[in-house]
Write a structure and sequence with these properties.
four-stranded mixed sheet; alpha/beta; single chain; 59% helix; 582 residues; 11 strands; 20 helices
Length: 582
């Protein structure tokens, strides 16, 4: 319990501090002030209940009409305070959600945590559905603290404010409960003074204990339900993104089978949840429906004994109801609390995983050199399971060279590029990086959600590159027809068009060193020659390290490094040379 409270406080502190915290604090002050005022209005409504029903009991029409006017005023004040508090609460909820989302996004992108926690790296930290943590859990946490937007479920703040009002309600109940409960048990006379005061906490304590016993399994089940729902949703998005490949492979039956398996996981945990909710509801539902009537039943002996009037009965019942409903927050909000606990645990696990990312703690030493050469010594690239993929005892690349790294499929050439970029933790040895700007081109081209012109300069600011330059380069690599057709969308590009676009990005950024992984694998030889010749003309002094299965075209000279132990390949060009790895 202490650990979860500490975790909740951690995320509350993150949400409440940082940029714009002054305005958030002002909103919180307004909310608290309104709710304190509502407590006073509620106390006045308790008194109104006595005045109104006493007037009815005396058949005093004028007094009853006056009390109806008082009731209208109280309702107007209460409604106004409620609406002001709700407006400020909604504004604060969104600000807290924004702050939590910003914090998680910052940590998710800092130190490339989004990559180092990827399942393909085989790390110990398992992060399921980070998109759900950032998009949904931040919102759920803010609602759990401040209250749901539909006001059906009270938040932790509402409970705290209710505890403040509880003091006033208990004092009022004490003042009203001037009579004692007298009865005989086994021949012994028993008298309980102010029994209405003691009945409230005892009644709620017993109900709370039973509620927890029946519902204590809910937090874990709800957490598991959220995870499986997210897994199923991810599988649907994955199918949508790969619709072309699935359709060409006639893979619809297989996809339905895999989707059905994931949905069956949802159904399995869903059945567990509804069974537990049914058991939990066997007590809580009758409690919800009877809690507002119990006070009247308990005060009825005093009324029947003539110790209180009808107005006093309703006033006493109202005071008792406020005490009981405040103390019953745990019962009313048990599922809401379960959601808060599950959400906090997911957020905490996500934060712990990101905090544990330490890119510099790897066996591969990456250093920056003062010269313009790339030096590799004793480089070993392993798979996540420890298998050695590539061993590169020594390699030196000079400024301005074009080097072709070739080798058998599956050897680890792409992984070698990731290691040079510092993105592969399962590597050892030493890499001395050259001075200047380095650019790494992945085998799978990333397509951001933006226009074609903006995608061509990614990740740079679109306004930082002249539009004429971008258009000229797009036409130079063969994407002119899309521009002529007025299609400025980056979606729907073929693999070959995506690779052309990626080469434009490199030309726009003008790096000193380019590490390209199968950058032209989807282009025919003539198209490759054209785009690579354009690349060389735009970046005449840049060094190119190209990973490819076949010989790249469009270069005047190229040095080949064979990452293969099975054959001695011939070298091409004046600076060629093959490297056999043991």
């Amino acid at each position: 319990m202490r650990a979860i409270i500490h975790q909740i406080w951690r995320f509350v502190w993150i949400a409440a501090t940082g940029p714009g915290s002054g305005f958030s604090l002002m909103l919180l002050v307004v909310i608290v002030a309104c709710q304190l005022a509502i407590i006073q209005v509620t106390l006045r409504q308790v008194q109104w209940s006595a005045d109104f029903f006493n007037a009815l009991q005396k058949i005093d029409a004028q007094a009853a009409i006056t009390q109806i006017g008082v009731f209208a005023v109280l309702v107007g004040i209460s409604a106004s305070l409620y609406l002001i508090a709700k407006y400020c609460k909604r504004r604060l909820q969104f600000r807290w959600r924004q702050r939590l989302s910003d914090t998680l996004l910052e940590r998710w992108t800092t130190n490339k945590a989004h990559w180092f926690l990827h399942p393909s790296l085989g790390g110990h930290a398992k992060v399921d559905n980070p998109d759900q943590r950032i998009a949904e859990d931040c919102n759920m946490f803010a609602e759990a603290i401040l209250g749901s937007k539909d006001d059906i479920r009270a938040g932790v703040l509402d409970f705290i404010m209710s505890l403040i009002g509880l003091v006033s309600y208990v004092m009022l109940l004490w003042q009203l409960s001037t009579f004692a409960l007298q009865f005989s048990l086994w021949g012994v006379g028993i008298e309980i003074p102010r029994y209405m005061v003691w009945a409230a906490p005892i009644y709620v304590a017993l109900a709370t204990t039973l509620t927890h016993v029946l519902g204590r399994q809910l937090p874990g089940l709800l957490m598991n339900e959220q995870r499986r729902e997210a897994d199923f949703r991810f599988a649907l998005v994955h199918m949508r993104e790969n619709a072309s490949a699935i359709a060409l492979s006639d893979g619809e039956t297989a996809e339905r089978r895999m989707l059905a398996d994931r949905f069956n996981d949802v159904v399995s945990v869903w059945h567990q949840v509804i069974r537990r909710e049914f058991i939990y509801g066997l007590f809580t539902r009758p409690y919800f429906q009877s809690v507002l009537r119990i006070p009247t039943f308990l005060a009825l002996p005093a009324f029947l004994a003539g110790k209180i009037t009808l107005g006093g009965l309703t006033q006493l019942a109202a005071a008792f109801t406020n005490v009981v409903t405040t103390l019953s927050w745990f019962i009313f909000s048990y599922k809401f609390i379960s959601d808060l606990v599950a959400t906090t645990r997911r957020l905490q696990g996500f934060m712990d995983a990101m905090d544990g990312v330490a890119p510099e703690a790897h066996a591969l030493r990456r250093e920056q050199s003062g010269d313009s050469n790339l030096q590799i010594r004793g480089l070993g690239i392993r798979a996540p399971d420890g298998r050695m993929l590539v061993e590169l005892p020594s390699l030196s690349v000079a400024r301005g060279e074009t080097v072709w790294l070739s080798g058998a499929s599956g050897l680890g050439k792409s992984t070698l590029i990731k290691a040079l970029a510092g993105l592969w933790p399962h590597a050892e040895g030493q890499v001395t990086l050259p001075s200047g700007q380095l650019a790494f081109m992945p085998q799978q081209v990333y397509m951001p959600l933006c226009s074609l012109m903006d995608a061509a300069v990614y990740p740079a600011d679109p306004g930082s590159v002249p539009r004429e330059t971008v258009e000229r380069l797009l036409r130079g690599v063969g994407l002119g027809p899309r521009l002529d057709a007025g299609d400025d969308s980056a979606s729907g590009l073929s693999v070959g068009e995506q690779q052309r676009l990626a080469l434009v990005r490199v030309m726009v950024s003008k790096p000193d060193w380019i590490f390209a992984d199968e950058a032209t694998s989807a282009l025919d030889a003539e198209s490759e020659r054209i785009v690579m010749a354009l690349l060389r003309s735009e970046l005449p002094d840049a060094t190119l390290v190209v990973v490819a299965h076949r010989e790249p075209h469009g270069f005047a000279s190229i040095r080949r490094v064979v990452l293969d132990t099975r054959s001695d390949e011939g070298a091409m060009g004046p600076n060629s040379g093959a490297l056999r790895l043991a």
